[in-house]
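Notes taken during the Thursday session

The instructor put the following on the board and asked us to keep it in front of us for the whole hour. The protein is 2-oxoadipate dioxygenase/decarboxylase. We were told not to look anything up and to reason only from what is written here. First, the residues (346 in total):
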Amino acid sequence: MDRTSFDTTAIETTQLGQLLLRVAGSAKTQQLFAMIEVDPRLLGPTSNQVSRAVLAQAMNMMLFAQNLSAVPEGARYVAEKLAAGSKVVFDHGALRTVDAARTGALPHGQQAFKRILEPLGFAVAHVYPLKKLKMTGRAYCHIDFPEVISQFFVSELHVEQFSINFQVAAERIVHKSRDPLEPQHHSLLLQLASQKELSFDDAAVLLPALVGCFDVQHEAPHLVDYETVLAESAEMAWISTEGNRFNHATDRVPHVIELADELRVKGYPIKDSVEISGSGAVRQTALKAAMVQRVFLDEKNHPITRTVPGSFYEFISRDKLPDSAQLDLRFDASNAQGIFKMTAAN
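Then, after some discussion, the predicted structure tokens were revealed:
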């Protein structure tokens, strides 16, 4: 996809820039535009209406920055990339959900994100069985600008496929989950789904609420429940502490194998191998997850702190489809399961 650099002094003349300025402030907006490549088609002039594509792009940019703030080695990589005169091409973000009978006020599994992604113009492009993990992945791709608005890889963990002890512990963790969306946000999402745009003021109200969905919605877990689910699923253990935060954000790069070698020489904590899809068209690797301090509750409900895996930063290379100018935007179930190992507890 042909992209041009964007003069950050002209941010305020675009609808996307104005929306981010209103919600994120001047300093953060300047940082986002300096860091992330934005297709010129998303840089239209200001108006009273905000399209679903512009709103989706604004949300994705904020989510990318949120992930980067949680992954110091990812931030280091991006800083070096910017210093060399390049920007990030944000390919996709990944998040995990729990498909359980009781998830409190939060819709179960991927339903919690389907309700926001579809009004924003995303649709499920492919479904990926992740049988080894007892999960299902869904790739949400933007209908209007599939190659330039980053995708979402939304995975569901199927609690009923695990042991009874696991099921009880998992539901104890998530059964009081909050819904970050209020009635006014649901109303705006219905309007967005119908009209494919919102007024500028309404978009500015909805945007921070959407970003807030990508967070932990349940209370601090009991350590015994964490250890119970960890024994069967590193993924559920990760959800226990990190919730629906971005598991990783991904930079689309031309030559991921060469980049991995370069980063390894520089001392980055990068995966030992590159995951290559069955077709060979999609190649992925990642930095190891940042280790973070999280609070648990002991048997007397006293808070205790443990070090656990947090989020990470990923790299992907995509070839074009055979006999086509379009990128192969698909994923690979085997690749995904290999990448998921980056958050396994040590």
